[in-house]
Amino acid sequence: MKVAVLGLGYVGTVTAACLADRGHRVVGVDPDPHKIDAIRAGRSPVVEPGCDELIERGLARGALCVTDDERAAFGCDVILVCVGTPSDRGGRVDLSAVDAAVHSLDPLWADPRSDPTILLRSTVPPGTLRHHVAPAIAEVSGRSFGVDLHVGTCPEFLRETTAVRDFYEPPLVVVGAADEHTAAIAGELFSFVDAALHVVRPETAEALKLCCNAFHALKVTFGNEIGELCRATGADSRDVMALFCEDHKLNISPAYLRPGFAYGGSCLTKDLRALSEVARRHDLDLPMLSHIAVSNDRRRDNVLDRVIDLGARRVAMLGLSFKAGTDDLRESPYVQLVESLLGKGIGVQIYDANVNPRRMFGGNGDFMEARLPHLQRLLTDDPVAALKGADCALIARADAGVVRALVEVRPPAMIDLCGELPGELEREPGYEGVAW
Q: Considering the domain 2-203, what is its CATH architecture?
């Protein structure tokens, strides 16, 4: 394919060199004469192992050329926008370079035969392609996004010093597209990569890149704060984290990494409190760890606000224990939510097949008596009965019985707290979802 790469910074240089090395005919475009001169001399304008060799090889084969003339992109099959998107101190992303790159293509649309696929590879906030880039191109081209205007987003997952290897061996290839043609062209462009291709909404692809980098930052911060705690208490922080990383079932795994409701249960809540207390006792300031519970409480408050905004006067709570398959109510966020709803004068009817107050003893029974002494009056053994007359269903379980009841009753509004409802119910008019 004939490919134009707009912007020859870090991402653009590596992208252009690697695509040329895999058989595409690539033209790199950048207004900076220093970058153009460096590449023409066979040198990468950025320090990246292996990039010089790829550039030299691409130039020698005629597969790679560079220019400061954006018109070189006009005859290309694919145009990759790889310009910088810095942020200010407040976090707002500067899209001026993206705007300039997009507007440099305006003369291209004077030819009705022009039909390039434009892929935004720069890192941008979710919604940028649909609400910012696509409308600007549509206004000039007279085409419609998702129909005959083929624009999408294809985020990169490159790390400095390993970018060439990361380009050829990515964990996945993600394309945000609103039409099949854009997705197909992006798949063809990266067909040499041995990784799964995921076609998603543009907003999803844009959010994914930010999510990945935020999680990397989170891991660094978590490791550093645990290190401080270990040093203060005499534990070996390196041994702790090395053993921590050996657990691929829960720690380094997809476990818990799913949008949903607040965490609960006696272990997570108790041990996080204990860790925070140890930090305070040693005069340690661990802001990330100390704010986990604050963020968790906010999840519960958000659901309460949504129920109030719906104007619901009666709610069906489908699931009460802190997780499915147990009757343990201790520190259950659903118990706390029920308490808040009742406190607001909202009626609650509860269904949980595992919860029977007559069989609850010990700490679990004590917790129930302290928090929901009138639980027996709120419970029903039939999910249909819980849903009858409810203005809103709060769904903490999505087992077969609950799903059948939801299909039968069709409550006016549903808020999925477990993230496991089948697709047909997610499309109901009153479906609220739980994509925090």
A: 3-Layer(aba) Sandwich (3.40)
Q: What is the 3-state secondary structure (H, E, C) of the chain?
A: CEEEEECCCHHHHHHHHHHHHCCCEEEEECCCHHHHHHHHCCCCCCCCCCHHHHHHHHHHHCCEEEECCHHHHCCCCEEEECCCCCECCCCCECCHHHHHHHHCCHHHHHCCCCCCEEEECCCCCCCHHHHHHHHHHHHHHCCCECCCECEEECCCCCCCCCHHHHHHCCCCEEEEECCHHHHHHHHHHCCCCCCCEEEECHHHHHHHHHHHHHHHHHHHHHHHHHHHHHHHHCCCHHHHHHHHHHCCCCCCCCCCCCCCCCCCCHHHHHHHHHHHHHHHHCCCCCHHHHCHHHHHHHHHHHHHHHHHHHCCCEEEEECCCCCCCCCCCCCCHHHHHHHHHHHCCCEEEEECCCCCHHHCCHHHHHHHHHHCCCHHHHEECCHHHHHCCCCEEEECCCCHHHHHHHHHHCCCCEEECCCCCCHHHHCCCCECCCCC
Please write the tens of the pLDDT for every residue from 410-436: 999 999 998 888 876 766 666 665 433
- Residues 307-354: tens digit of each pLDDT: 999 999 999 999 999 999 999 999 999 999 999 999 999 999 999 999
pTM assigned to the model: 0.89
Which pLDDT tens digit goes with each residue over 134-160?
999 999 999 999 999 999 999 999 999
Q: CATH 3.40.50.720 in the chain: give the residue spans.
A: 2-203, 294-426
Of the candidate CATH numbers 3.40.50.720, 3.30.420.40, 2.130.10.10, 3.30.70.360, the domain formed by 294-426 belongs to 3.40.50.720
Looking at the annotation, which residues are catalytic? Answer: 267
